Amino acid sequence: MIDELERLVESGEWPVGTRIPPEPELMRDLQVSRNTLREAVRALVHTGVLDSRPGDGTYVAATDGFAAALARRFRHSEALEILDVRRMIERDAAGMAARRRTADDIENLRTLERRRTQVETGHDRDASIDAELAFHTAIVAAAHNSLMLDLYAFMTDAVRESIAAVFATVEGGLEGHVTLHDQLLASIVAQDPVAAEHAAIEHLESVMAMLARGGMS
Hints:
Elements: H1 2-10, H2 23-30, H3 34-47, E1 50-53, E2 57-60, H4 65-75, H5 79-100, H6 103-121, H7 125-142, H8 146-154, H9 156-169, H10 178-189, H11 193-213
Antiparallel strand pairs: 1-2
Helix pairs in contact: 5-7, 5-9, 5-10, 5-11, 6-7, 6-10, 7-9, 10-11
């Protein structure tokens, strides 16, 4: 039973972040008893592949046990440690994106940057965090390296927390970083990998400095 659930996750039929079907549906489709199903789900929750949310349901947290362990390691890292890793990935991703980006990538990045600017002016903290994460994830995706994108995906929760830490520590969040975002996007559009890497590093180092001044470790 556990193997069957893992197969459904690994096949992509249940993507990471989605809620798995309700018990009655799974019992019918998999032809198993309620107890057997619950034991299998509990086992995968324990390994971190599934995430049980009381009152909401059970969600896919990772594609396999290794991915779950890696995501868990990121979640339990300090904010500045996460930013160190982000700097390495996002620097190289920015350079690759500048060399490899497509017209669709540019359109998507421009849309996300406009969205990020709009929600910042609305002072919606959660929306600002989501928009910031979406913009940086899109840059990694524009590098067109699936392994790098998978690694960044494992970091999603930790990256979100590192962004949230800035909003919690620094009044105004990342409002002062509009110019750095503009420089980063412009460098990718211009296919200038050196400038793109420099803008990515400058952005993250300024964030690290703000967190350090705020007493974050």
